[in-house]
């Protein structure tokens, strides 16, 4: 995430063209460190959200209203007193600082026209919203910073407002080529770090982008660059600055597997083009990005207890599997003991009293064999000892084989639940997962009746399988969990529909409704891509997918949900890329 000077420059340009000349008709403070302005301009109404939250400072236009406290905080009341019906004269950014200056004109108590500045500082833990008069005296701020907190600058009513220059960085919008090269080459660091530590408003992401455009690895030492490479770097930096000065913004959100991971005001050469989702408005991008991130964070938090239960069970079952596999391996020598017993039974008459071994010919292989003996026992007693060991290991082998099969099935079941947790998008997706964990004893019932007996009260299930439409118009459905997989495969799909699943790993059942027609090849490829994407192999470049007509898929009696068998199938290699598919709401 790079809410840096370049993104703010894009935002300032958008706000200046949208809000300048507009009037503030409403001011609210929905959160301790946030304000929401309602502004009317050119016959339209806009909402400007500004947050000085230390962990997530933000500024963007939004369509969403936010509930406010019944009693407005003091700072909000002060702004209402001065700025109700005030007109926005301009929205500017000093240099490429992470600061937005709203210049506002209003009438004072005497009816005279006055100017004020609302300085919105978006600088991480130092973020603030500061209200100043036209002579840069602080009227008030949403956060008060005393000299005890900061030795650099006090933010208190009556103090002078200034931008602290603690890092002595250069302004990238005014720096010359000679100055740029001089500043960069004076750093004993990687070229990427040298750029973002020397220039105001340039984040590590944008520093890496500038290096990428110049075809230079950002982690190379500055001292290793040739004069030609430095000159090429400076030219790419100049073009980057020209895009900012000419307002050639093209906001993009970087997506990885439908999850937003970065954003920028320009397309990034660092990422493949297909991973970059373009936006017409930086405000719309910021709103979507943080909304999506918030949704992902919230579902992660909501599912954390389930993940912990599943991961604990997976570790336990994996340990059990390792122990059982070792036990099974130990039983592999059972046939040796059987042969020892048979050889002793056959050649034992030759054995002398007190002998410690028997040398004879193994009549199965015609090779010599040595059999260790207990000298205190005769030949038949030693033979009986080896037959007993053989029978014990044989019984162990039979029992552990059955146990290992059950353990592998349990492991497969838990991995399928873990995969379902990974693809859960909303809270309703967790209801069936919680129910499945309860049904199979991993999660205890928590509802109790008056009699003290445990009772289950099933939550209402509103989650439905994912629905996609192929490029050729065929409906494709994806189960989000094991119960949905069973429902899709054995109740929703008809015999001639096609069934897809990632081979040898946990994943969703994917059903293509064939409509009784022969499907185009592209439909098979797209359905296979969905099966790859909604499986444990989504991080892999290629995933092998099994596919077969639904009528070939069977469910063994008593098997766990989502478990199926099939004996004939086709296979193909798929890439877990579903960007070309349209999801149907």
Main attributes of the structure:
5-stranded antiparallel β-sheet, alpha+beta, 36% helix
Layout of strands and helices, then pairs:
Layout: H1 5-19, E1 23-31, E2 34-41, E3 44-51, E4 58-62, H2 74-83, E5 87-92, E6 99-107, E7 113-121, E8 128-133, E9 138-141, H3 177-185, H4 191-198, H5 204-213, H6 227-245, E10 252-256, E11 259-264, E12 276-278, H7 282-302, H8 304-330, H9 334-347, E13 357-362, E14 367-372, H10 379-423, H11 429-439, E15 447-448, E16 454-455, E17 466-469, E18 475-478, H12 482-492, E19 498-502, E20 510-512, H13 521-533, E21 543-549, E22 570-574, E23 582-583
Antiparallel strand pairs: 1-2, 2-3, 3-4, 5-6, 6-7, 7-8, 8-9, 10-11, 10-12, 13-14, 15-16, 17-18, 17-23, 18-20, 19-20, 19-21, 21-22
Helix pairs in contact: 4-5, 8-10, 9-10
Detail the poorly predicted runs: 447-456
Q: Please indicate the percent range of residues in DSSP E strands (runs of 2 or more).
A: 15-25%
Give the beta-strand count: 23
Compute the separation of the termini in Å: 29 Å
Architecture overview:
The chain is 36% helix and 21% strand. With 585 residues, the chain is an alpha+beta fold. A hairpin with a 5-residue loop joins β6 and β7. α8 runs antiparallel to α10 and α9 packs antiparallel against α10. The two termini are 29 Å apart. About 2% of the residues have low confidence.
């Amino acid at each position: 995430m790079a809410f840096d000077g370049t993104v703010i420059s894009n935002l300032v340009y958008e706000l200046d063209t949208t809000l300048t000349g507009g009037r503030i008709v409403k001011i609210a403070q929905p959160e301790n460190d946030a304000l929401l302005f309602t502004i009317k301009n050119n016959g339209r109404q806009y909402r400007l959200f500004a947050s000085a939250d230390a962990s997530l400072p933000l500024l963007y236009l939004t369509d969403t209203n936010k509930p406010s406290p019944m009693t407005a905080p003091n700072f909000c009341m002060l702004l209402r007193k001065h700025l109700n019906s005030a007109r926005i004269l301009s929205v500017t950014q000093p240099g490429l600082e992470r600061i937005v200056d709203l210049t506002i004109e209003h009438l004072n108590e005497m009816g005279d026209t006055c100017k004020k500045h609302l300085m919105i500082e978006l600088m991480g833990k130092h973020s603030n919203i500061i209200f100043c008069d036209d002579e840069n005296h602080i009227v008030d701020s949403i956060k008060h910073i005393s000299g005890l907190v900061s030795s650099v600058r006090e933010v208190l009513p009556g103090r002078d407002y200034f931008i602290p220059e603690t890092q002595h960085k250069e302004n990238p919008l005014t720096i010359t080529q000679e100055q740029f090269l001089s500043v960069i080459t004076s750093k004993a660091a990687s070229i990427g770090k040298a750029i973002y530590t020397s220039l105001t408003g340039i984040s590590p992401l944008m520093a890496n982008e500038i290096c990428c455009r110049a075809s230079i690895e950002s982690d190379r030492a500055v001292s290793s660059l040739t004069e030609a490479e430095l000159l090429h770097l400076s030219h790419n930096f100049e073009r980057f600055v020209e895009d900012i000065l000419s307002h050639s913004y093209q906001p993009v959100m970087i997506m990885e597997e439908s999850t937003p991971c970065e954003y920028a005001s320009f397309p990034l050469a660092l990422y493949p083009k297909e991973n970059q989702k373009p936006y017409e408005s930086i405000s719309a991008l910021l709103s979507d990005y943080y909304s999506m991130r918030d949704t992902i964070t919230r579902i992660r938090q909501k599912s954390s207890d389930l993940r912990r239960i599943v991961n604990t069970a997976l570790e336990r079952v994996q340990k059990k599997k390792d122990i059982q596999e070792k036990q099974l391996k130990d039983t592999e020598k059972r046939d040796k003991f059987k042969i020892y017993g048979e050889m002793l039974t056959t050649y034992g008459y030759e054995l002398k009293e007190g002998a410690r071994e028997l040398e004879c010919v193994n009549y199965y292989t015609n090779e010599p064999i040595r059999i260790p003996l207990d000298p205190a026992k005769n030949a038949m007693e030693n033979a009986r000892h080896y037959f007993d060991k053989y029978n014990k290991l044989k019984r162990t082998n039979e029992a552990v084989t059955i146990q290992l099969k059950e353990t592998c099935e349990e492991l497969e079941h838990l991995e399928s639940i873990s995969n379902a947790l990974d693809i859960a998008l909303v809270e309703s997706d967790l209801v069936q997962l919680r129910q499945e964990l309860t049904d199979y004893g991993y999660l205890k019932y928590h509802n109790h009746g008056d009699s003290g007996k445990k009772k289950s009260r099933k939550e209402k299930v509103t989650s439905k399988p994912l629905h996609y439409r192929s490029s050729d118009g065929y409906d494709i459905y994806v189960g989000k969990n094991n119960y949905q997989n069973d429902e899709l495969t054995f109740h929703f799909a008809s015999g001639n529909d096609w069934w897809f699943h990632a081979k040898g790993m946990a994943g969703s059942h994917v059903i293509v409704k064939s409509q009784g027609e022969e499907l185009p090849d592209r439909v098979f490829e797209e359905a296979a891509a969905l099966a790859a994407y909604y499986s444990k192999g989504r991080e892999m470049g290629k995933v092998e997918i099994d596919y077969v007509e639904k009528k070939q898929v069977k469910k063994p009696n008593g098997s766990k949900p989502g478990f199926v068998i099939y004996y004939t199938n086709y296979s193909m290699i798929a890439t877990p890329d579903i960007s070309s598919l349209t999801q149907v709401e």
